[in-house]
Amino acid sequence: MIALINESNTSKLPVSFSRIKKWLKEVAATEGFIIGDLTYKVMGDDEVLQVNRDFLDHDFYTDIITFDYSEGKEVSADIVVSIDRIRDNAITSGCSVKEEYLRVLVHGVLHLMGYKDKSESDQKKMRQKENDAINMFHVKHF
Predict the structure, then answer these.
(1) pLDDT, tens digit (0-9, with 9 covering 90-100), for 92-139
(2) What CATH number does the domain containing 8 carry?
(3) Backbone dihedral region of 101: left (phi > 0), alpha (psi from -120 to 50 degrees) or beta?
């Protein structure tokens, strides 16, 4: 099951969540994984900062925090996303909010499937996987 809880002040998110659910299942399947219980909670910067402080002892803004409960090839997690960071990142990177929203959502799933982003080479691989997944979203018209 994939769920979305929108706790931000945004009444409408940039992409239909029914399309996103199909897409994320397809992304996982291309890597030999299945989606178990995956919950996205979309919040504002201040709420995500508080989660970062409370659970990770980090005192900075971030676009995504992933709490991994995966077992084997079944990905499960609670994922907290900042819509404010997504909007700012879209401006900084020169892409649409929709593209950045998709990138952040799939970024969490890619982490759950074992992709890392600490080293420069891992970051390049992660970015390529994100781009491949976003292209899949557009080509398959989820």
Answers:
(1) 999 999 999 999 999 999 999 999 999 999 999 999 999 999 999 988
(2) 3.40.390.30
(3) alpha
